[in-house]
Structure prediction request, 308 residues.
Amino acid sequence: MSLSTREAYGMALASLGSTEEFVVLDADLAKATQTLAFAQKFPHRFFDMGISEGDMIGTAAGIATTGEPVFASTFAMFAAGRAYEQIRNAVAYPRLNVKIAATHGGVLIGEDGASHQCIEDISLMRTIPGMTVLVPCDEHSTYLAVEAALKMDGPVYLRFGRCSSEPVYTKAAAKFEIGKGNVIRDGQDITIIAIGDLVFEALKAAEVLEKRNISTAVIDMASVKPIDSQLVRRYAEKTGKIITAEDHNVIGGLGSAVAEILAESGTAKLRRVGLQDEFGCSGKRAELQEKFKLNAEGILEAAAYFSC
Prediction:
């Protein structure tokens, strides 16, 4: 059974903790964020800060001033939302080595409802100067993203989902580099650039389009910031048609990041699949995928636009 990216995050911390020195903080959600695995293995390097997210980020910043990297974990709504000021002023402004690991991002977390379905966190984090934003798509890319974040000196926002993620990579084939996108399927007619759970959906859509004689490239853009602008421009020139797909508001997220590149280069048409400036709602994951068209069908509808 495939793991969720939050589970893979917890496993990565527990594994990397054996060879790397870092501290992990959590805000009373260690079981949900999966940092419990690290806490049980390295109790002297784990601190539960309670339901006090701003305090957690401030403490993380203080520890980081000693030279020790810190992972600070909670739900995306509480990290990017409630602790935004502390992240901006206490972590990013002094460029401290704190990794904000936010689980339960997007509407596909399911029944928690709109109050907990954070759909603007990528937008908030990518506008902070110097903040790196990473959104891996499966368990293997998650491990590599956590490892890359740890090795990088500076603030990082890592976004993870709640439910199990379909595998995109095998362990042997997985690769990840901050600032680079991965072309996991090449094509000549349309390019789909996706993050998180929508990468798998993009691959499903590409298979359908292939049967319609539409050659489709799929890019996993897990590094939302810094984004691989060179790769975006190359495929914009190659296919002339770009679709972005994300479990996030289309305003400010991956779609906006790609739109900014295309606006400056003027090389391709663009359609954005994601939350269309609306809040989520409570429901089962599959129901929410269908309602908000965060699936292969939604991507296919966007592709159909190009033939109008």
Notes: Residues 205 and 296 are 5 Å apart (CA to CA). Residues 198-211 form the longest helix (14 residues). The chain has a mean pLDDT of 95. The radius of gyration is 18 Å.
